[in-house]
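Dear colleagues,

As part of the handover before I leave the project, I'm documenting each prediction I ran so the next person doesn't have to rerun anything. This entry is a single chain, and its sequence is reproduced below.
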Amino acid sequence: MISTVLLTGLIGSAFAGPATTKSLIDEASASAKKENKNVMVIFHASWCGWCKKMDAFLEKPEFKKAFEKSYSIVHVDVMENGPKKELENEGGQELMEKLGGKTAGLPFFAILTPDGKKLTDSILPKTGNTGFPSEPYEVAGFKDILTKTAPHMSRADIQKITAYLSVKQQH
């Protein structure tokens, strides 16, 4: 669940700095395995406006349950600056690069199996990183990602999500 993994990261940061990327992924993977879900790893930063839009979208009551049925969602903090550098999760930048997001920008996300096999990411062929899907081609790409990787998301859920994103093109 979003709140469980996020809470773990916050508790870690209150005592000994942010949780390591490995521990966050391990926890999300264990949860995903138990609940027959995939893992959505979202790379973000405190300064990233599109990241905040993506997080707000995933937390919307009308969509939150649909995402939580299919994904253990984990946030990994990367690319921070100055004093906020301490917010980064150790190993985050390396994992982002390993998953194909070296030049992607933020937010970048990847969908993994509970065993860590990459299924897909937010980089669309020909157009680059989707980040938060707001353009028609990004919404279509996001719909394709959900169709292929969200094992418990209904067609109706996917339709509702893409209809919202199609109307809500926030720039």
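Residues 2-121 form a domain with the Glutaredoxin fold (CATH 3.40.30.10). The longest strand covers residues 38-44.

All the best with the project,
I.
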